[in-house]
Structures are given as C-alpha cells and as structure tokens.
C-alpha cells in the first residue's frame, strides 16, 4: 500500500506520467463502485487514476483508494473547480488534481504545492493555465480536433506537456502519442460502466490492452516505459 505521507511534486508527477503514458479517469454514479474500479485499474498496472467529483461520494472513494492503492500508484481528484474543492480533495488524500477548464482551482492548488493537470482547449487557454501554475495541460475535449489539432497547438508551445483527454480509445491513443502527447486520459473507453456498478472483468481486459499498447509504443520508439 502507499504511504499516507507520500509527497507528490509536480516534477515527480510529470516524470511518472511521461513514463506511464496513461491516466485513468473514473466517473460514475456510485462512489463505492468508482473506488473499486480505480483499484482494479491500479492492480492491472495503471499508476495514475483520478476520481471525478461529479461521482456521488467521490471524497469517500478517494479516501478508500488512497488507503488501499498499491505501492507507486497515485490517486487524483477530477472536476476540481473551486478553492473549497481543492481543500476537500486534499483532505481526502488526493495527490493531484485535474480540472476541465481554466478554473480558480489551478492557481489555488499550485500555490499549495499540489500538482495540477489543467483543462484547456485553445492555445490561449493552454498558455494561461501554465502561467497559473499548471503541471501539464489536459487537452479537452481532444476529439474535437484529433491528433492533428494537438500537433498544431504544440507547434508554438513545444515545452508544454499535453495529455489528450476526451474520446480517446484504444484505436486513437497511438496517434496522440505520435503527435506529441505525453499521455492520454481514459474514461469511458477504459472503465465503461464499471464506476456505476458494472462488470470489472471487461474493464480489467481493456486496462491490459491499453497497458500493452503503451509498452509496444515505448518499444517501437525506443522511449522509456
């Protein structure tokens, strides 16, 4: 299990996500099922999993996952928007936060030393989020423009780390990595209905598929995994 005193830095989170290339996104209608889905993904090999605050009893789910996560796995909180959200999720044990937009939570978390994956779509939003202290940019929804759009946004900002989120499935992930994404964020294409009490067996199979894809990409491109 993870240590309750584990300190996660922005640099450490960024390095780990670059290596893993995958972030799990749990969003459902049952906090208990969400926690079990997150832990199942971690057991299969996912190192970074966020639980969205739109999930009922999300804070309790975060506490449960933090207490039971395998060593080396980190739990984050998603859809974190306000200062109070930041306070609540960190009290629950979240080790990083994720936003869907240019929310006040970005600067609040950054000021507190909490790594932030900040949601942005346009070049201006991506730049602004980094100015506010974001660790990386969650390009969302990535499916609106696909890998070609990611490449276009990255061209003027080669040093901004982008994570492609939204409509990224097994068939799309490699294209985003090739376009320069450091990782892809996986919600429905990974978890399906598992976070709402659905079957975990299929979710585990999909998790292994994504992990295998990331390992194959690392082997093919000669990059660490």
Task: Describe, in plain words, how this protein is organized in 3D.
The protein has helices at 10-20, 31-44, 58-68, 83-92, 105-111, 123-131, 146-154, 173-178, 188-191, 200-221; strands at 22-26, 48-52, 74-78, 96-98, 116-120, 136-139, 162-165, 183-186. α2 (31-44) runs parallel beside α3 and α2 (31-44) runs parallel beside α10 (200-221). The model has no long low-confidence stretch (mean pLDDT 95). With 225 residues, it is of the alpha/beta class. The protein is 46% helix and 16% strand. It has ten helices and eight strands. The chain has an eight-stranded parallel barrel, surrounded by seven helices.
Please tag this protein with its features.
single chain; 225 residues; alpha/beta; eight-stranded parallel barrel; globular
Number of helices: 10
Task: Characterize the main sheet.
Answer: 8 strands, parallel, barrel
Output mean pLDDT: 95
Rg over CA atoms: 16 Å
Distance between the termini: 22 Å
- Strand runs, count: 8
- Stretches with pLDDT under 50, minimum 5 residues: none
Which percent bin holds the helix content?
40-55%
Helix-strand topology string: HEHEHEHEHEHEHEHEHH
Class computed from helices, strands and strand pairing? alpha/beta
Strand order within the widest sheet?
A: 1-2-3-4-5-6-7-8
Strand content: 15-25%
Shape label = globular
Write the layout of secondary structure elements.
Blueprint: H1 10-20, E1 22-26, H2 31-44, E2 48-52, H3 58-68, E3 74-78, H4 83-92, E4 96-98, H5 105-111, E5 116-120, H6 123-131, E6 136-139, H7 146-154, E7 162-165, H8 173-178, E8 183-186, H9 188-191, H10 200-221
Parallel strand pairs: 1-2, 1-8, 2-3, 3-4, 4-5, 5-6, 6-7, 7-8
